[in-house]
Amino acid sequence: MESSGPGIARAVAGPLWLLAWGPDRPPPPARRWIKFRLYAIPLALLALAGLALAAAEYLQNTRGTAFPVAVLLGAGSVLPVALVFRRPLLAWRIALVMEVLGVLGRGPSEAWPWNPVQIIALLVVLAVVGLTQRSAVTWVATAASLAPIFVFAGSTNPWGPAVLYVAVVLVADTVARRRQSHRMLAEKEELTALERARREVLEERARIAREMHDVVAHHMSMIAVQAETAPYRVPELPESAREELAAIAGSARSALADMRRLLGVLRAENGETPRAPQPGLGEVPELVETARRAGMPVTLSMPDTAGVPAGVGLTAYRIVQEALANAARHAPGGPVRIAGRVHHERLELAVRNGPAVPGRTPPPLAADGPGLGVAGMRERAALLGGTVRAGRDENGGYTVTAVLPFAAPVRPDAERTP
Known about the structure:
Among the domains are: about 10-155, no CATH class; about 280-418, Histidine kinase-like ATPase, C-terminal domain (Heat Shock Protein 90). Helix content is about 65%, strand content about 10%. The protein has helices at about 5-20, 30-35, 35-65, 65-85, 90-100, 115-130, 135-150, 160-235, 240-265, 285-295, 310-330, 370-385; strands at about 300, 335-340, 345-355, 385-390, 400-405. Strands 1-2-3-5-4 form a 5-stranded mixed sheet.
């Protein structure tokens, strides 16, 4: 019980500070009224002006207040209502001051020390404060507003108006709590839906990873095993064939390693992806050498590529990788020329392969256009703000050209993340 006193004091001190000096943020306007405010605001101001004149006339008739003072008191009576929907705390502060000033010149025949307009205005202000502020702030403001009633209306019955004020604030606070509960429930449902969608994405990624592991990885493993064991199963193989099989086994093992990294990405949650080094322009010569060992006549010309960002280098590597695979499929035996240069803060890349050697006719392109490899190259380049063009040339070969800027342009409709 000893600690309840300081706790109550802290609970009251915070709302008191907010009511007296705290920031007064305007509540968000109701969407249903936004389209009517062009007409509602002038009509409301006109009505408030009429109520101010009515309050001034009441003060003149019942108290004999001078006209300038009566006008000022009448305007002060309705001013909180004019401000309450934009600055509810400021409106309450003015209404509290007017509770004290409103009793000036009270006549002995008056049963109530405030004019009727001021009483209604205070009810409106307390109702809006109850709808827009925290419960603690609302009830502290209500208690502060009731104090002048018991001070200045002690000779009459102050309990009737006090009960009316408390009832209005109770209804407003209940409505505010109900709105807050609905808002929190909607936010919780939205978070639940996002979590459900995230879980579905993770489950689909896990399913794809299982399929790739059970089907593709199995076949790649079998290729590697068969290529490695062929020299032992077929002892009469010449040395050149043994080297080819060793190269096939190495490529299969490398593909399996890449696939394991991809499966790790698919199975990762919360962004905890594997952080193995990614290939870049520095690995392109090794990629070209692997293609040469497979029998492809490849020439590489890529001088002065220092300072290329890692993301651009990775995209260039994947484009060269896919272009070499396409050349092996569609132009078997034909020469391949790879050229790249840095020009105006961008990497320009070209992979050209000649037509297939006689007797090794390449398969025709699909009727519906390029396959997934070309689409993947374009998607990678688009992420950097670059472009990729691919198609047959006039010599019967195939050309892939890419322009990869070092800094992607900022689109006005996209949010940038650090």
